[in-house]
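[step 3/7] inverse_fold.run input=structure_tokens len=296
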């Protein structure tokens, strides 16, 4: 793994595979090691895959502002009143473009998962020349209507309590069980969560990212300007970001394709990964030819 300066912060990243660059943007609180390895292996057969830690998680720059409490942020999501936040999804999108600059990459295929899908959308809207193709997975448009979790799910998540370094892996796994799909493997997830906790434990960073999501504006009108080939992937049994989030995203981006799986929750189901990668590659193949190198 390596680290670069980008957009005034340090970003930890890793590159593997060969081919056209594919930038993967992780979701809320997730680290670059949280992408399932079998999924990465499949992608690296077709692309040069770039993974990184978003700001405030993993080994990238940690911020210091005091985030709203989980209850305050969830209340903001329910009331649609933005909480105080010192950065937004737009800022995290600028980080992403800064990473491409630092790596001397003019443009890349961009795929984001959950919050990472929001960031990837913002990159495609604000920096269209940097995005060869866009894949938005289990995400939404930020319109605060589509892809919203139920109040019951939010209440269950709130009752799980505050994580500590001792219980973070178990608590995170229990939380994930509330919205994962039927093929999700608890033991595999727990092992991954334990590795992530050992690498970095930043619950306040996750809280800041959650506040950034809640404080960010609707991207629907901006998505109407996206011209990059766009694939939207969503799970029909996703309870965290309901399927309406993917449907709205596809409806907002002209010419986009919606791929929905009946056995997918808010996760990347192992039986579907090869099919997903083939769809991502097909979407990427629809992009016009791009030159390599840094932007002028």
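[step 3/7] decode complete -> sequence:
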């Amino acid at each position: 793994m390596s680290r670069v300066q980008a957009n005034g912060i340090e970003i930890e990243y890793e590159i593997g595979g060969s081919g056209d660059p594919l930038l993967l943007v992780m979701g809320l609180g997730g680290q670059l090691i949280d992408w399932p390895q079998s999924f990465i292996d499949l992608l690296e057969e077709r692309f040069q895959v770039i993974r990184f830690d978003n700001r405030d998680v993993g080994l990238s720059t940690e911020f210091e502002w005091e985030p709203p409490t989980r209850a305050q942020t969830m209340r903001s999501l329910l009331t649609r009143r933005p909480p105080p936040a010192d950065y937004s999804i737009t800022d995290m999108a600028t980080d992403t473009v800064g990473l491409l600059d630092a790596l001397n990459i003019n443009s890349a295929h961009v795929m984001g998962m959950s919050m990472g899908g929001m960031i990837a959308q913002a990159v495609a809207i604000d920096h269209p020349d940097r995005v060869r193709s866009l894949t938005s997975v289990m995400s939404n448009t930020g319109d605060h209507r589509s892809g919203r979790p139920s109040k019951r799910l939010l209440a269950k998540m709130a009752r799980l309590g505050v994580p500590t370094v001792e219980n973070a892996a178990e608590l995170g796994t229990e939380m994930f069980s509330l919205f994962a799909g039927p093929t999700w493997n608890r033991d595999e997830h727990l092992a991954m969560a334990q590795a992530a906790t050992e690498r970095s434990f930043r619950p306040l960073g996750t809280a800041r990212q959650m506040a950034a999501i809640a404080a960010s504006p609707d991207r629907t009108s901006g998505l109407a300007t996206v011209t990059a080939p766009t694939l939207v992937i969503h799970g029909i049994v996703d309870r965290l970001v309901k399927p309406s989030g993917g449907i709205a995203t596809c409806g907002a981006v002209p010419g986009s394709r919606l791929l929905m799986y009946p056995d997918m929750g808010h996760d990347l189901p192992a039986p579907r990964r090869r099919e997903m990668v083939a769809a991502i590659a097909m979407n990427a193949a629809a992009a016009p030819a791009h030159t390599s190198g840094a932007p002028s």
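[step 4/7] annotate
Residues 2-285 form a domain with the Rossmann fold fold (CATH 3.40.50.1820).
Residues 11 and 60 are 5 Å apart (CA to CA).
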